[in-house]
Amino acid sequence: DAGVIQSPRHEVTEMGQEVTLRCKPISGHNSLFWYRQTMMRGLELLIYFNNNVPIDDSGMPEDRFSAKMPNASFSTLKIQPSEPRDSAVYFCASSLRREATYNEQFFGPGTRLTVL
Amino acid sequence: GESVGLHLPTLSVQEGDNSIINCAYSNSASDYFIWYKQESGKGPQFIIDIRSNMDKRQGQRVTVLLNKTVKHLSLQIAATQPGDSAVYFCAENTHTGRRALTFGSGTRLQVQP
Questions:
Q1: Predicted pLDDT of residue B2
Q2: Chain A residues near residue B108 by CB distance under 8 angstroms
Q3: Residue B49: helix, strand or coil by DSSP?
C-alpha cells in the first residue's frame, strides 16, 4: 500500500496568495482528517470527513480555510488568502471507521507551508 | 515527510536502557488511547493502542500502561535503540460523539549511543 499521499511536500508562497494542499487517503479508508502542526500549538485537528461528508470542522481557524472531499480518494485544504501565521506543517490522515469501534489513523508525510 | 522543531520536554537515555514516556490525558470520557512516534521529517506513525477496559498492553519492545484513576498513560520502550529517537505523542479518543483524536504536546526521546 502506498500510504497516505500528500502534495506538495513543500510550498512557499506570498501573503495574500491562494494555497491548495492535496491528499489521497489509503484506498478503502472512509475517514479523512486534516491536521496542522506548529511549534506553539502542537498537532491540532482542523477538520475531518466520514464517507466524504464533513463531520467536524470546529478546528478550522477561520473562513479563509476551506476543505473539500469530492470523492473517496481525494481531498483538498485551501487557504485563501494566506497569511504568514498560516505557516505550519499540514498533515492528512485516514482511517477505516466502523461503528462503535476505534480509529487508528494513518498519517501522510505532511506539507510544509511557508507564507512570506 | 515533515515535522516541526517543537520545544518539547526531552528524555535522554542510553542505548540499551529502558525508556518510560508519560502522558496525562484530560477527558475522563476517553476510552481509546494511542501512542504515535514522529521521526524527523515524517508524519506521526502508530506504535500501540489501548482501550479503557484494559490497564496494560504489550507489543514488540513496547508496553502501554493506563491508569484511569489519575488519567495517566505511559509508554515503556525496552532496550532503547538509536532508531527510537523521535517525538512521541499520546492521543485520546472517544468512540461516541466527536470521533477524532486529541493529541498531547509530545515528548522528545534522545537515545545516546
A1: 45
A2: none
A3: strand
